[in-house]
Write a structure and sequence with these properties.
The chain has 79 residues and is mainly alpha-helical. It has a domain of 36 residues. 71% of the residues lie in helices and 0% in strands.
Length: 79
């Protein structure tokens, strides 16, 4: 399953790099839950954690053109 998810993520990243807002929305939906779980363990206030995650996704959107899959993965979760 991880390989399929990675292919989908790579495709979404390529689409986002082309300016596709729908791909960004899909990426947000796909990763929000996992990332919110991580952020909310660090930041106990739910509203602040949501703001931090929102700001993070804005940075991802604005800087996606700089992403290089040869230097690392977009997201890694040990199963």
């Amino acid at each position: 399953m991880t390989a399929t998810l990675q292919v989908d993520t790579e495709s979404l990243i390529q689409q986002m790099q082309a300016g596709d807002k729908t791909a960004f929305s899909t990426m947000y939906d796909q990763y929000f839950g996992a990332l919110f779980g991580i952020v909310s363990k660090i930041i106990r206030d739910e509203a602040i954690a949501e703001d931090v995650l929102q700001d993070s996704f804005i940075k991802i959107w604005k800087n996606i053109h700089r992403f290089d899959s040869t230097k690392g993965s977009f997201f890694y979760m040990d199963a």
